[in-house]
Design brief:
This protein is α+β, with helices and mostly antiparallel strands. Helices cover about 40% and strands about 30% of the residues.
Length: about 130
């Protein structure tokens, strides 16, 4: 009987120490922003931050567009929304979050006018 009680206590100890997916996502987003941001993605794109909105299970990427890309009409011409959607569908690095049906939001702001949002889109599990 003591064996079973000891096994139960050990099992409870290990499950109590595990981090929830929400906690992991929130921690990873904060760590990424603190350590990596702002970061140049390409010649016209800078990632400013990454956040996790726990209430809606949304991973939110905040970008800034510079130079030639800093135009709203260009994003429409290149079909940015469908490009982002395809990229998300193919992204294996966020598979755990996609399996949990998290939402993914992308906000692109103008570098010339930081108050101007050039693109703001949210994808749900039905999109990927």
């Amino acid at each position: 009987m003591k064996k079973y009680w000891l096994l139960a206590v050990i099992a409870m100890f290990f499950t109590a120490c595990q981090e929830s997916l929400e906690d992991k996502c929130e921690r990873d987003a904060k760590d990424y922003t603190r350590k990596q941001c702002p970061a140049v993605i390409d010649s016209n794109t800078i990632i400013d931050s990454l956040t996790f909105e726990r209430a809606t299970h949304t991973i939110h990427y905040y970008y800034r567009l510079t130079g030639a890309a800093d135009e709203e009409k260009l994003l429409n011409e290149i079909d940015a929304i469908n490009t982002l959607k395809k990229s998300l569908k193919n992204a294996t690095v966020v598979k755990t979050y996609k399996d949990a049906k998290y939402r993914f939001a992308y906000t692109y702001r103008s570098d010339k006018d930081p108050n101007k949002i050039l693109l703001d889109v949210v994808f749900t599990d039905k999109d990927y």
